[in-house]
Hints:
Layout: H1 2-31, E1 39-53, E2 58-62, E3 65-73, H2 75-85, E4 89-99, E5 105-116, E6 129-130, E7 133-134, E8 153-157, E9 162-174, E10 177-191, H3 204-210, E11 213-224, E12 231-243, E13 254-264, H4 266-312
Antiparallel strand pairs: 1-2, 1-3, 1-13, 3-4, 4-5, 5-6, 6-7, 8-9, 9-10, 10-11, 11-12, 12-13
Helix pairs in contact: 1-4
Amino acid sequence: MRRRASLVLLAFAVFFAALSPLLRWYAFPRLAKIPPNQYQETVLEAKPATLLDYSTLKAEQVDKITIVQTLKGNVEESEKIERSAGRDVVVWDALSYVQGPDGKMVSKIPERYIFDAHSQDPVHATGEMVDGDAVSREGIEFKWPFLTEKRDYEYFDAQTRTSSPIHYKGTQDFRGMEVYYFEQTVPWTEVPMPKTMPIKGITAAQIAKTGVTRWYTTKRMFWVDPVTGAPVNGEEIHKEELRNAKAMGMAQDTVTVFAGHVKMREDYIVSIVDLVKSQRVLVLLLTSYLPWGFLVLGAGLLALSLWLEARSRRPGEAPAAGRREPEPAPTPA
């Protein structure tokens, strides 16, 4: 019985030892993915900020500028692209809506971001755009890959429609979580006028005809959970200008359109941290807890199997002292 039990335990030991790497290197890359129907809203604020007053054509300091960013999964479009791409695809319809202290719209920039649900690599398909302009993204945007590494990544900037490195700057503690801090600086770059202008009747094409150009620079900062790849906080030191502004009758040739240190609102930070903490457990189950648990279990079962095998092969105990074995019966003549 001991021998049979040891063989059963050995079979289970081999099974769990083999399951450990399979779960980490085969199952995880296929099971971990972004759901196609995700919806997320984030509110950021710049307090105080500099904002162009289009009624006076002068830049003025205001108490607050609010930026509402929404990401909405487009399930219908993702399914359509999946049929031709042959892989799991997520389509996010994003909107960055900026409003002044009076609640009026300053600008709104829609985007369509198409990416691989598992790796977060961009997928180029019809409909990929920023503010109605077709783009071909390189690198990431909004989210880092699962199991983010301590290295630089290419990050897509929606204003310039180009990608450039976002640099890993170190590991920090944020609200009790170990996060990776990334930073990117976009130098002064001429960028397109928004398609939707804050003044009715004025279009981007009309402004472009005057020779006025729009320029932009930013310092972008993210604190990223390395397990899920989700940013738990983000900030930007942002500045936009109109140049050759005298062509529109302004007093100065360079006028600030918007400048401020944009930070995520506290209640949204708390909500995102709670969400990420719950989701990272699921990723850790597939990448750490279960693989290591199965490996330890397999080693334990192997040790128990060997112990039972050794017991089954132990020689029998010697006869007690003073006792004699019975003589064999004599063979009849």
